[in-house]
């Protein structure tokens, strides 16, 4: 197949899922054309069957605001025509699904066809899409997509109820490369972080308010009162400064390592004991899956799709949003009880292998593409 993929070129989340999907499809012999405003983060090397098309932006002075949606549509049209694409697959509904819809309409006018699939990822449905200025257009673009997938059962249900749509939505879970994300020793890095044998917690995110990263700092403060513990924070975003300030205010900044954006995630995850994800909203929690694949139990909030990933009292613990007290207790419990910790660690890896292995999920996408193309 010749597939066009549009996604945000970002460091985490939907950008990573789309890029890893494209790379896997290319490896299987499909031709994949990425269309975005910048090179997707993980596309930083030559890969056979992968092409990248950058959306050109007009900077005409009349346009005070960027017309990305329209520029993207034009680029889609160009790539669909020149590369003879079979299908467009857009990740994150806003505004990608609308651009794909417009491209399809333009082609209809000249008696050409293109089908497009929209994959819903999270905040496109649970947060941004609910804003009154976006809601009607998100609903419309879901209804008009030839196929729609969601990354968790939670996200599927939310979409059907919040947008009152009658649409078949296929749940295709996010996936992980178990050969890259696996338990291995990371002794040197761990020694650097925790030279006196302290325990190590880790959190990775885009530091948006929805991730509640200050809760991670507050959990560390409580855990540290019982067990000497360090915290690694990976990523960057709007709440980072507030977190740096909070860790100083609480007098624990010497125990917090702000690493910023990092590529060597498996080294970092493997240097830690446990992953924290106290999000306000989380449709799936790819970062938690990355940690689980490395055999790290997760303590998280019980929101969204997280209970589909983190099994309470088996691969980690879940608690109400903002219940720092409980999350700290769960963390301490696991860090103090070695036997329990090892069981949870083993369970985490096994769950990643059983339900979220890339080898099993990629064929689900291919099957879905075929179903939509033949439907
Ligand atoms: O808002 C974000 O956190 C980024 C967002 C995205 O689409 O880039 O992440 C969402 O998609 C990820 C990949 O499917 C999911 O693992 C995240 O849970 C989801 N984030 C939220 O729902 C907040």
Automatic annotation (TrEMBL):
<dbReference type="Pfam" id="PF00534">
    <property type="entry name" value="Glycos_transf_1"/>
</dbReference>
<dbReference type="InterPro" id="IPR028098">
    <property type="entry name" value="Glyco_trans_4-like_N"/>
</dbReference>
<dbReference type="InterPro" id="IPR023881">
    <property type="entry name" value="Thiol_BshA"/>
</dbReference>
<dbReference type="GO" id="GO:0071793">
    <property type="term" value="P:bacillithiol biosynthetic process"/>
</dbReference>
<feature type="domain" description="Glycosyltransferase subfamily 4-like N-terminal">
    <location>
        <begin position="11"/>
        <end position="179"/>
    </location>
</feature>
<dbReference type="InterPro" id="IPR001296">
    <property type="entry name" value="Glyco_trans_1"/>
</dbReference>
<dbReference type="GO" id="GO:0016757">
    <property type="term" value="F:glycosyltransferase activity"/>
</dbReference>
<dbReference type="Pfam" id="PF13439">
    <property type="entry name" value="Glyco_transf_4"/>
</dbReference>
<feature type="domain" description="Glycosyl transferase family 1">
    <location>
        <begin position="188"/>
        <end position="351"/>
    </location>
</feature>
<protein>
    <submittedName>
        <fullName>N-acetyl-alpha-D-glucosaminyl L-malate synthase BshA</fullName>
    </submittedName>
</protein>
